[in-house]
Amino acid sequence: MNFIIKEATEEDLPFLVEAIINAERSGTQTLSYEKLFELDEQQVINNLSKILAEDITGQELCISDFLIAWFDEERAAAICSWIEGEEGSSAILKSNVLMFGFGKEAFARVLHKAALLEPLNMTREAGALQLESVYVTNKYRGQGVVNLLILAHINKQQSRKRRLKKVQIILAKDNENALKAYIKAGFATVLEKYQTNAEVLKYLPTQTKILMEKSIS
User: What CATH number has the domain bearing residue 156?
Assistant: First the structure.
């Protein structure tokens, strides 16, 4: 298939929210934003739309950091990427936009669960290209579009004279389809974190997260 890769715009916002939500589910029915903030799915959609519209770069909830693959005037897939540390810590930036979008009261509900979530936290490597919200619609799965988008993100950064050495992604180990796809694309697991307390599954789709990376020659 001849996919066309385009930078995301505000017109793509509903599709980007769809991508974020499906990526968060990691092949399960658990939407972490819904469970952690104790809101319904429509509230999550509204708040994510509000956050994306602010377009704060350097973290995963940003329109400008997304690329979208199109086929025959149809959105087929999307991936977000940024270079960690270029705009500051993505963890801090994301915390700020979440507090803005979901509100202090809902954000406080997440903080109460911090001890349960902490064993799965991973520090992103400064200078590495980070991938997030990798999403392909059912119709276009198995067509190699993820590899095309990853390459497009790498080329986009390198065209700006960025000196990249590696690309990384954090995902649920249980998401076997995604795991196989990244291994096929040349990624290898470099870190694994596990939460022994199964209560975490009330809020997240997994007890085990892995960090995978691929060198950029």
Answer: 3.40.630.30
